[in-house]
Amino acid sequence: MRTERELRTVLAEVLNLGSRADALTAASPLLGALPELDSMAVAALIGGIEDHFAITFEDEDLTEETFATLGSLAAAVEARRGG
Q1: Could you give the number of structural domains in the chain?
Q2: Are 77 and 53 in contact (CB under 8 A)?
Q3: What is the rounded CA–CA span in Å between residue 47 and residue 20?
Q4: Helix, strand or coil for residue 1?
Q5: Which domain holds residue 38?
Q6: What's the half-sphere exposure (Cβ side, CA atoms, 13 Å) at 76?
Q7: To 10 degrees, the CA torsion angle through 54, 6, 28, 50?
Q8: Is 32 within 8 Å of 55 (Cβ atoms)?
């Protein structure tokens, strides 16, 4: 899925994951699984995603469930993009 691929790129850039981002799949857990994804990084990641995809997350989008896996994050981005 293109959105997942682009999200891997954003995650790699924002969290400095390097090639580790390539191993992420839709089922890969994010919150609690990536030590780099702390509260400050979540804020930076949200900004990076909003800039990259030209979307704006609403407060109700910013839940633990949204950031649980790469797939759940991709679904939230797709919903914001209207697709």
Answers
A1: 1
A2: yes
A3: 21
A4: coil
A5: 2-81
A6: 22
A7: -10
A8: no
